[in-house]
Structure formats: structure tokens, C-alpha cells
Sequence to fold (244 residues):
Amino acid sequence: MPTVDKLSVLFFSTLLCACSSSEWVVTTWGEEFIEDGIAVADFEDGCSATYDRFEVQFASATLLEVDETVVGDAPVSRVDLVEAGPQQLGTVEVRPGDYQRVYYEIGPDTDDAVRTAGTVTCGGDTVTFDWSFSAATRYRCLPLDISAAAGDQVTTELTVHGDHLFFDSLDEDGGLLRGQAIVDADANEDGSVTLVELEAVRITDLGYPVGTVVGIDHFADFVGHLVQSVGHVNGEGHCFVDDA
Fold:
């Protein structure tokens, strides 16, 4: 049996070990636009929108050193951002330090990596939508200011901007929110706009700028590309989409 001195050493070693690491907590939030809807005042053309569903399949969330050394990979999952948030995705123990890089992925490349459903109202016209996208996307979020002190818990929020699906431009500076083109795409006038109906609308007919993006011929292509822009960090923190 260990002596008292050895027990003391074991006890204090345990305390030291427990306090020599930090806990990195990863959450996600769709903010009020996804939880509560997008008001008329936010749209350029007097429309409004609400989400009944905004499911995102997160594939990974990684904290890294500046030299790309991985500090920790937090477990992630599929969430519906319509539910009140922020929602916790996962936690992982990391060594204490100051970090500037978080990378995360939406995917994998399945048909419903992102699934959205809701309504768009313009004047007296309301249509529903239920759209699924493959949207496999890797986001590089930097520079950040993440100070993980020993024994502390530090949180990073993977923020999803649901208003981006209504942008009228693919230019780097973003665009204005518009909904009328979606309502007008209801070719069979059944009150539901499908991706097939968006596919029938040529983007040149809408006059929506595509910037330097290639291969955007139809409205469905346009909205599909907008889905890849929804990823941010800690609210308005910018993330670069990794095209590699």
C-alpha cells in the first residue's frame, strides 16, 4: 500500500493532470433569421420568409495551430437549426494555448447535407419550399482569437446564416435579399416551389450577378451556390470556402 507521502503525490499529480488541459466546446446557431424568420424590412422587394426546417450535417470541426498542426477534433452531428440555439455539437480536450484557426466541414456529399423547408411571402402570394442540397463544403475560419487556458473551457460557435439563400448576387460583397423571383418560379401555381421549377428559370433572365463563379446557368444552380456561403464563425466571423 502506498505511504501517505506517495498518496499525496498521486493526489496532487491527478489535480495537475486535470488542470493541464483545456476543453474546446463547439456549438452551432442559426440565429434569429432561421429560428424566427426574416422580416419584410430585411428584404429589398418587400417579401418575408420563415423556416420550418434548416438541417445541417456537420462532418468535422477542427482546432489548429498556425502551421496547420491539429490541436483537437470535436465530434459533430446533424442538427436542425430551427430549434432554439446555440446547440452544442461536441467537446474535446486540447492543450492550453492561443489559437487562430478553426476549420469545419458540412457534408459529406450526400443529397441532403443541407435541407431547408419553409415559406416565402410576397404581398398576397405565399409559396412553400422544401429543398435539399449536397453542399459538401470545407470552411477555413481565420484569424480568430481563441485563448485556451489550462483548466478552462473555451467555446467556438459555427454560425449558419440562413438569409444567404435569398441573396440576389454571388459577388464577394454579397447581395440584397429578394424573394419575388422564388414566388414567380411556381410555374404550376400549386403554392410549392421545387428545385425542378428553379431549374427552369435562367439566371440571365433574373439579371442576378454571378461574379467570377462559373457554371451558374439556372436559378437552382444559383441557390445551390448560395448554400455554400452560409458558414460563418462566432456570429459574423468570416470563413473562406476551401475549393481545393
The chain is about 20% helix and 40% strand. Residues 135 and 162 are 14 Å apart (CA to CA).
